[in-house]
C-alpha cells in the first residue's frame, strides 16, 4: 500500500472570463479544504469521515454550488442532492430534493449508517433528517444574491444554466481566456456556464477509499430534476480499488456511469489510475458531454481529468505533493 492521498473539486466548466478575484477565492477555499483533510488524515480519521468533513466545509461556503450558494430551481427554491460511499463493503448513502438540511452530505451519511436503504428523496429525506436530529434551516439560508441574479438571467434567456456562476458585473481579465464552444444538454443548447458541484475522494495509508459529492444542480432546472451527483456509479463511486467523484453535465455522466467506469477499467483492463481517468473522459462521454472527475487509488495514487474549460480542483498526498488548479 502507498500513503494517504486526497483530492477535492469545486466543479468542471469554468467561465473563461472569471475575474482574478474569484479565481483566488476559489483557490483559497480549495486549499483550506485540502489542509482540513490532510490534518484529519494525519490524525487517523477514517477516509469516510474525512470525506464528510471536507464536503461539509465546502457546503458551508457559498462560493461553489452546494449547500449554501446552491443553484435555484425555476421556482426560485433550492433542491440539493448528495451521495457518499465507503469502499469498505461498498456501503453508500444518497439524498435528493433536500430543501432545509444544512449539510446534505451528512444526511447522505446517515442514510448509509442509520437506515436500511441507500437512497432517500424529497419529503422522505426531509422526514428522515428530522428523525435523526440533523441541523435544519430555512430554504432562504441557501439563497444568495448572486444566484437570484443568475436565475433572472436564465429566465430572460429561457434556458437552463449549466455550471452557472458567471459574474454579472466586473471587468477583470482572467489569467486564461479561451473561445469555448457552445454547450448542449440532451441536444438542447445551453448558453451560459461556470463552476458547479463539489466533491472529495480520500485514501488512507491502509488503502481504504471513500468518495462523496454534493450539489445544488442546475440553475433554472425543473423542480424534481435529479442529476448524477446522488447516483452511485455515476457521480460517486468507491470500492477496494479506487474512489471517484464526478462533476459536469449530469445527464452525460449518468449515461456513461462515469465514476464506476473508472473502477471497471482498472479492474478489467488493468489500467493505472490516471490511465483509467483519461480513458473514461475520452471514451465514455457521448454527445459532446463535458465533465471532469477526481480519483484516488488504494495504492495511494491521486488523479484528475476533464474535457471542459477548466475544473476547480486540488490534490495532495503523503509524500508532500500538493497542487491546486483551475485551468489545464
Automatic annotation (TrEMBL):
It comes from the Eukaryota. Gene3D superfamilies: (Glycosyl)asparaginase. InterPro entries: Ntn_hydrolases_N, Peptidase_T2. GO terms for biological process: proteolysis. Pfam families: Asparaginase_2 (PF01112). CDD domains: Asparaginase_2 (cd04701). Substrate binds at residues 225-228, 247-250. Keywords: Autocatalytic cleavage, Hydrolase, Protease. The keyword Hydrolase applies. One of its GO terms (molecular function) is beta-aspartyl-peptidase activity. Its EC number is 3.4.19.5. The record marks 196-197 as: Cleavage. It catalyses: Cleavage of a beta-linked Asp residue from the N-terminus of a polypeptide. The active site is at residue 197. Heterotetramer of two alpha and two beta chains arranged as a dimer of alpha/beta heterodimers. This is beta-aspartyl-peptidase. It comes from Salvia divinorum.
Amino acid at each position: 500500500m502507498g500513503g494517504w492521498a486526497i483530492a477535492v473539486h469545486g466543479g468542471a466548466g469554468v467561465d473563461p472570463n472569471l475575474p482574478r478575484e474569484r479565481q483566488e477565492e476559489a483557490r483559497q477555499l480549495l486549499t483550506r479544504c485540502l489542509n482540513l483533510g490532510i490534518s484529519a488524515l494525519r490524525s487517523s480519521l477514517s477516509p469516510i469521515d474525512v470525506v464528510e468533513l471536507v464536503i461539509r466545509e465546502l457546503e458551508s461556503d457559498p462560493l461553489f454550488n452546494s449547500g449554501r450558494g446552491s443553484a435555484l430551481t425555476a421556482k426560485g427554491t433550492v433542491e440539493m442532492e448528495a451521495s457518499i460511499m465507503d469502499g469498505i463493503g461498498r456501503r453508500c448513502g444518497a439524498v435528493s430534493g433536500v430543501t432545509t438540511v444544512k449539510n446534505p452530505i451528512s444526511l447522505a451519511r446517515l442514510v448509509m449508517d442509520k437506515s436500511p436503504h441507500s437512497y432517500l428523496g424529497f419529503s422522505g429525506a426531509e422526514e428522515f433528517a428530522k428523525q435523526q436530529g440533523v441541523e435544519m434551516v430555512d430554504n432562504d439560508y441557501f439563497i444568495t444574491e448572486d444566484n437570484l441574479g443568475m436565475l433572472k438571467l436564465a429566465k430572460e434567456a429561457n434556458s437552463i444554466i449549466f455550471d452557472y456562476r458567471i459574474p454579472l458585473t466586473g471587468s477583470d481579465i482572467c489569467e486564461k481566456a479561451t473561445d469555448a464552444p457552445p454547450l448542449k444538454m440532451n441536444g438542447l443548447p445551453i448558453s451560459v456556464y461556470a463552476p458547479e458541484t463539489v466533491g472529495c475522494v480520500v485514501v488512507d495509508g491502509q488503502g481504504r477509499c471513500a468518495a462523496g459529492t454534493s450539489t445544488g444542480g442546475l440553475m433554472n432546472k425543473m423542480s424534481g430534476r435529479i442529476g448524477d451527483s446522488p447516483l452511485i456509479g455515476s457521480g460517486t463511486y468507491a470500492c477496494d480499488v479506487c474512489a471517484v467523484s464526478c462533476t459536469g453535465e449530469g445527464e452525460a455522466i449518468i449515461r456513461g456511469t462515469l465514476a464506476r467506469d473508472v473502477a471497471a477499467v482498472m479492474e478489467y483492463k488493468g489500467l493505472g489510475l490516471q490511465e483509467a481517468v483519461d480513458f473514461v473522459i475520452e471514451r465514455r462521454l457521448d454527445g459532446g458531454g463535458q465533465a471532469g472527475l477526481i480519483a484516488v487509488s488504494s495504492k495511494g495514487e491521486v488523479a484528475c481529468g476533464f474535457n471542459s474549460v477548466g475544473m476547480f480542483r486540488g490534490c495532495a498526498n503523503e509524500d508532500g505533493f500538493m497542487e491546486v488548479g483551475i485551468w489545464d
